[in-house]
Amino acid sequence: MGGPGPPPTPRARACAPAATVVLETRALAKTYAEHGWFGKRRAVKAAVDVNLKIRRGQTLGIVGESGSGKSTVARCIVRLIDPSGGEILLGGKNIAAMSRRELRPLRQRVQIVFQDPYRSLNPRRTVADAIAEGPMNFGLQRGAAIARARELLEFVHLDLSAMDRYPHQFSGGQRQRICIARALAMEPELLIADEAVSALDVSVQAQVLKLLEEIRVRLNLAMLFITHDLRVAAQVCDDLAVMSNGEVVEYGPAFRVFDAPEHEYTKALFEAAPGRHFRFGVE
């Protein structure tokens, strides 16, 4: 999408160790049964023994190549798919094995923004209705939900005239801002961005990344940032998990992983990246 992407910037801040743990996974696993030739079935391990921890006010990044399992982990955490094993602790409660009914009151606490802003919004619903729908489903009166939508549009730096317009009337970057506003309308504790800027032009990527950082600071949210783009990860992440073949092969503070990668896969991933001679925090 035009150029190598935003340069990595220094991560001067650090999440206090005493900050509340919003989400933790323990030995999280996901195995798919895949049909092969002649009706044979084989097990595909999309996630294996994944252990992660995200604190309030912290951004944890998961990076890896396509098929590494990073989006599978995100979808398990938000329970769009059911994990095959392990624990997903949200505020200390294990949601991994909860039924859909048990999950419902907890769903608003974790929200996800997907890669494609063009497919994420219902083309027949106005922006106001798209943002207000979630809170109304959880009992908020329409007037209050519309008022919240109005506040959130300002928060994501969109004009209030957007309220009565439809998704096709906006650019990709604007649509992604609407998707972010829709997620924030649920007042989540954890916001997951699953390749949320990869479909955008580089200049628009920078604007959306700046917005996500502003959201993290102002709302003190925990964020899980899924990306294949190492330069984006260097810019936004406090901690970094590197995934390969469903496993986390390296995990630690982002500055350490970028400056002194330990695992051979991480080293190879960095070496193969566009602009691969950058160092974390150095343009």
What this model shows, in words?
Helix 3 (127-137) crosses helix 4, helix 3 (127-137) runs parallel beside helix 5 (172-184) and helix 4 crosses helix 5. Residues 1-7 have low confidence and may be disordered. The protein has helices at 70-77, 100-103, 127-137, 142-155, 172-184, 202-219, 230-236, 254-259, 264-272, and strands at residues 21-35, 41-55, 59-63, 85-90, 93-94, 110-113, 190-194, 222-227, 239-244, 247-253. By secondary structure, the chain is an alpha/beta fold. It starts with 20 loop residues before the first strand and ends in an 11-residue tail after the last helix. The protein is globular. Strand 1 (21-35) and strand 2 form a beta hairpin. It is 32% helix and 25% strand. 42% of the residues are buried. The protein contains 9 helices and 10 strands. The strands form 2 sheets. It has a 6-stranded mixed sheet with strand order 6-7-8-3-9-10, sandwiched between helices. It has a 4-stranded antiparallel sheet with strand order 2-1-4-5.
